[in-house]
């Protein structure tokens, strides 16, 4: 008992923070037919609040040559197939419809989608129904369903249906998976878990797939390989550009109002004791109102889409983004 007290006393303050509230925190919504799905606040969230944390839905091998190395296609394809076997077609056609379409699965009908989207306050430990799947991997911070209307869904699904490959070859499927992992996966360092002390961080945190990312590792013992992890809800969070510091009063004013409202970490290191290795933890960068879309900055890597974020819309950033 005495030992525990002194250990807790020496923990850095950041590890003594509270886990996310076990209350419905996020909803899925459709942002636009081109941006696709996004995640929205299901209630007011305060600055620095942990919103949710979530175990990965699937993982594959990652290495520095990730985007170029065709030999890695196989591992990504295997991970996708495993997720399909685990969650079924409902999961891939709803959570990752573009990937599914390119693998030959048409988007789910509204009748099939609606009961899954409306999984109000799904219990994370109830796994007996596909209706609960979208919240299944959440550890804290419940999933509160969705706000998608039938019209919105059908417009979006029609767009996705256009990219359907009727009879995909094995090569088509593998290529689709590689592309999917490039757009959706987080780079997560493998770790040895050297800690023998409960509640202390076990190893390095992950970093995003960006050249600028730095791991916030405390101790790295041996393995340096990484996994590419897909999170069912975390991977649905869209990008928002961070407005640059600028002498322009207009941009500076917008900077305080807009820009990404969330940040994320993977694993316990540098964050809080309740986060397991490979779990993604999402935290509010500022106060967020119910209904506001959750966003973060994807970093400097090549994005592969025309940015439609609020910063680009409301400031001169759109001009610069359009030139990249
Ligand atoms: C990690 S996923 C986010 C979830 C995605 N919207 C969906 O429906 O599956 C990243 C993809 O979302 C889209 N996206 C994300 N942020 C965007 C933005 N600011 N503007 C336009 N498209 C965006 C792009 O297609 C990108 O490849």
Automatic annotation (TrEMBL):
<dbReference type="GO" id="GO:0005634">
    <property type="term" value="C:nucleus"/>
</dbReference>
<dbReference type="InterPro" id="IPR046341">
    <property type="entry name" value="SET_dom_sf"/>
</dbReference>
<protein>
    <recommendedName>
        <fullName>SET domain-containing protein</fullName>
    </recommendedName>
</protein>
<dbReference type="InterPro" id="IPR001214">
    <property type="entry name" value="SET_dom"/>
</dbReference>
<dbReference type="Pfam" id="PF00856">
    <property type="entry name" value="SET"/>
</dbReference>
<dbReference type="InterPro" id="IPR050869">
    <property type="entry name" value="H3K4_H4K5_MeTrfase"/>
</dbReference>
<feature type="domain" description="SET">
    <location>
        <begin position="24"/>
        <end position="299"/>
    </location>
</feature>
